[in-house]
Amino acid sequence: MKYLKHLTGIYNLSVGQITDILDETSVQKKLLLSNESIENLKGKSVLNLFFENSTRTRLSFERAENLSGLNITNFNPENSSLAKGESIIDTIRNIDALKFDFIISRHPTPGFTNLLLNFTKSQIINAGDGTNEHPTQALLDMFTLREHFGNLKNKKVCIVGDISHSRVALSDIFALSKLKANISVCAPNVFIPRNISSLGVSVCNDINFAIKNNDALILLRVQLEREAGNSISSLNEYRKFFGINSERLKLNENIAILHPGPFNKNVELDEDILDLDNLFIFEQVTNGLAVKLALFKLMLGS
């Protein structure tokens, strides 16, 4: 694998690096499911530097860190000297002085990981920076699709929902493009960025068409915390025109459905489809753990 010291985004990865990560994820998932020993980072340290709330991403990182044998420190911004007026740069400089091997970073500001790169020598993994990128989510999405299809070349994948507020959408688009999938987006016009076609993405506004004509859907949450709800008339209206339900899925009963979570139940998808075999929401969580185990192993080799 080509040298990988940091994971700041999918945009910076080569096809070979993505493939190597997915291949190692497959190895780590087999170890995980067979309860074999994974520990390979004993004596190394990690700081979980989370400035945003998280369930799946944070817990899967902490679980992977425990399984890998890392010494874990969790940062709580509310209990730090930031609350006393210390600048974020001085905070990072103090963190650097503590000599962590890895820093896992999540922050609401796009490009925050680049700030870390300027002020710390630790290896950085971006767990989400604002509306920019969420590379580990994209990697687990690609792994989930690859497990299902075998190969993503020429597969038709449609990203549905709140594209404009989503860092997952951008990372998924970069990854799908590098793996030669055919990418489209489907959403209300207010959720589609103006320049989206420049990324090699086609646009549709008809969810029934999207279901009929794609191999997979990646559903995105309407991000109410980023005031996305103010852009549409109502959540019920969104559900009516873009929600996934059992009736709509009769148009293509074999379509694979992903969602990064958390989901707004009975908005992006109806509760009665949660047990479908082609809905991979909870499988994605397991795959996310395997991705993080793979990253720690591969980056240790760097």
Would you kindly provide a written description of the structure presented here, covering whatever features stand out?
By secondary structure, the chain is an alpha/beta fold. The chain folds into 2 domains: 15-132 and 285-301, Rossmann fold (3-Layer(aba) Sandwich); 135-280, 3-Layer(aba) Sandwich (Rossmann fold). Helix content is 37%, strand content 15%. The strands form 2 sheets. The chain has a 5-stranded parallel sheet with strand order 7-6-5-8-9. It has a 4-stranded parallel sheet with strand order 2-1-3-4, with helices on both faces. Helix 5 (135-149) packs across helix 6. The mean pLDDT is 93.
What is the topology?
Elements: H1 15-33, E1 45-50, H2 56-68, E2 71-75, H3 88-97, E3 102-107, H4 112-119, E4 123-129, H5 135-149, E5 156-160, H6 167-178, E6 182-186, E7 202-204, H7 207-212, E8 216-219, H8 235-242, E9 256-258, H9 281-301
Helix pairs in contact: 1-5, 1-9, 2-9, 5-6, 5-9
List keywords for this structure.
302 residues; alpha/beta; Rossmann fold; 5-stranded parallel β-sheet; 4-stranded parallel β-sheet; 37% helix; 15% strand
Percent range for β-strand residues:
5-15%
Q: Unreliable stretches, pLDDT < 50, 5 or more residues?
A: none
What is the rounded Rg?
19 Å
Please trace the helix and strand order, writing H or E for each element. Answer: HEHEHEHEHEHEEHEHEH
The multimeric state of the shown protein is single chain
> What's the story with the biggest beta sheet?
5 strands, parallel
Report the top-level CATH class of the largest domain. Alpha Beta
Number of domains: 2
CATH topology of the largest domain: Rossmann fold
Mean pLDDT: 93
Helix content: 25-40%
Strand order of the largest sheet: 7-6-5-8-9
Terminal CA distance:
9 Å
Q: Helical region count? A: 9
From the spread of the alpha carbons, the general shape counts as globular
Query: So, the CATH homologous superfamily of the largest domain?
Result: Aspartate/ornithine carbamoyltransferase
Helix-strand category: alpha/beta
